[in-house]
Write a structure and sequence with these properties.
It is elongated, with a radius of gyration of 19 Å. The protein has two domains: 8-96, Rna Polymerase Sigma Factor, Chain: A (Orthogonal Bundle); 113-180, Winged helix-like DNA-binding domain superfamily/Winged helix DNA-binding domain (Arc Repressor Mutant, subunit A, Orthogonal Bundle), CATH 1.10.10.10. The protein starts with 7 loop residues before the first helix and ends with a helix. The protein has nine helices and no strands. 75% of the residues lie in helices and 0% in strands.
């Protein structure tokens, strides 16, 4: 690559044309922060590695659609949207797998990293109120608050319409007000 500091959007255009060096550079710049954000949502390193690989396979195959779908959007946002959707898919697949009997193993429960962070930063009462929310409301709060996604990005991540995201966010805020009020 002649230019050492190409912006991500330019790199994506080059990747769309099959430029392997541009793909390597895009991966080098973005895989570390994507892995960190994925680990915030999933403590399983195996799933995170699988999702990261799936994300970049998708980027390689679909880089040409970036400029069509996101003419003024950020490449980082597009990459995170792909990664977040792949994570949701991986977690759904994992949830459908039959449980392996673990009668001989002691039960160990490890809270998700994001739950620990929420408890530490927002206090016990708020953390407890959040944990009492329905799972679909928790998913919206995690996406919009912890991950900083927009309504549209959350809609894409969770695979639900934007109106549903807005309704769930409103329900979550109302439930939290009532629980803390």
């Amino acid at each position: 690559m002649k230019e050492s500091r190409l912006d991500e959007e330019r790199l994506l255009r080059l990747v769309a044309r099959g430029d392997a060096d541009a793909f390597d550079e895009l991966y080098r710049r973005n895989a570390p922060w994507l892995a960190v954000r994925l680990r915030r949502r999933c403590p399983d390193d195996g799933i995170v590695a699988e999702v990261l690989q799936d994300t970049f396979v998708t980027v390689w195959r679909a880089a040409g659609s970036f400029s069509d779908l996101h003419p003024r959007g950020s490449a980082a946002g597009w990459l995170w949207t792909i990664a977040a959707r792949r994570l949701v898919d991986a977690l759904r697949r994992q949830a459908r797998r039959p449980e392996v009997p673990t009668d001989d193993l002691p039960a160990v429960s490890t809270p998700a990293a994001e739950d620990e962070a929420l408890s530490a930063t927002v206090g016990h009462e708020v953390g407890a109120a959040l944990s009492r929310l329905a799972p679909e409301l928790q998913d919206v709060i995690r996406s919009m608050v912890l991950d900083g996604l927009t309504v549209r990005e959350t809609s894409i991540l969770l695979g639900v319409p934007e109106g549903t995201v807005k309704r769930r966010a409103r329900q979550a805020r109302q439930s939290l007000r009532e629980a803390l009020g």
